[in-house]
Structure formats: structure tokens, C-alpha cells
TrEMBL record:
CDD domains cross-referenced by the UniProt entry: DPBB_EG45-like
Any Pfam family: DPBB_1
GO CC term (a single one): apoplast
UniProt cross-references to InterPro entries, sorted A to Z: EGC1/2, Expansin/allergen_DPBB_dom, RlpA-like_DPBB, RlpA-like_sf
Residues in the signal sequence: 1-24
Cellular location(s): Secreted
Residues annotated as domain Expansin-like EG45: 27-129
Name of the protein: Expansin-like EG45 domain-containing protein
UniProt main location, coarse: secreted
UniProt entry tagged with the keyword Metal-binding: no
Keywords: Secreted, Signal
Length: 129
């Protein structure tokens, strides 16, 4: 009987861990244009265009190499009332957005355009790792 309880507790712990990892965080996204090299994480290595720079809010320089699924959830201002495309994008952190960064995550221009109208400049997002 004690073994069964232990297994149940272990499974419950795994479920809680998985739920924590899959939990979507909220923030804002901005974008930056090319050239994307050199970058703080990879120097002159070209990592493509589905990339982003992390702010201190998501780990700063320690976030190098992490992948995030980012989805636009709405506008941050009245300029573009419905900026979201309804799509999500997966980006890899390749750079660092220094203190004063205007977004939680600074997407490449191409990645931002996948999820929102670039005219918005900054949008509310949800993101998961």
C-alpha cells in the first residue's frame, strides 16, 4: 500500500512540474531589424530570422539558446486596434536587449510580422518556453 502512494505522489510531482513548464507567461514584444549579426550569444554566426533578443525579465544573457513560442494577445496602444495575426512563432534567443528595453522580448522584424502588424511597434504577448 505504501508503494502505491509513493507512485501516486511521484506522478503528481511530475504533473505539477510539467504544468509549471508549460505555463504561458505574459509580457510585451517589440522588434528590431537586420543585420542580426553580430549577436551577444553567437557572435557572427547566422542563426536565421526567427530569432529574438531577451530582456532581463526573461533572463537576459542567460537566456541564450532558449526557444520561445510567442503569440500576440492584443495592442499596447490605440495606434493599431487589432494588430494580431492570430499566428504564433517559435524564436530562438540569440541576443540581449539591454536595460531600458521596451519589451519583454525583442523579436526580429520577420518574427514580429508573423504575429502582428509591424505598424503597431509593440504588442502584448503570451509566451512559453
Amino acid at each position: 500500500m505504501g508503494v502505491g502512494v509513493g507512485v501516486v505522489m511521484m506522478m503528481l510531482g511530475i504533473v505539477i512540474c510539467l504544468a509549471t513548464v508549460a505555463h504561458a507567461a505574459q509580457g510585451t514584444a517589440t522588434y528590431y531589424g537586420p543585420p542580426y549579426t553580430p549577436s551577444a550569444c553567437y557572435g557572427n554566426q547566422d542563426k536565421g530570422v526567427m530569432i529574438a533578443a531577451s530582456s532581463d525579465a526573461i533572463g537576459g544573457k542567460a537566456a541564450c539558446g532558449r526557444k520561445y513560442k510567442v503569440t500576440c494577445t492584443g495592442p499596447t496602444n490605440q495606434g493599431v486596434p487589432r494588430p494580431c495575426t492570430g499566428k504564433s512563432v517559435v524564436v530562438t534567443i540569440v541576443d540581449y536587449c539591454p536595460p531600458g528595453c521596451q519589451g519583454t522580448i525583442d523579436l526580429s522584424q520577420a518574427a514580429f510580422a508573423m504575429i502582428a502588424d509591424r505598424k503597431a511597434g509593440k504588442v502584448n504577448i503570451k509566451f512559453t518556453r
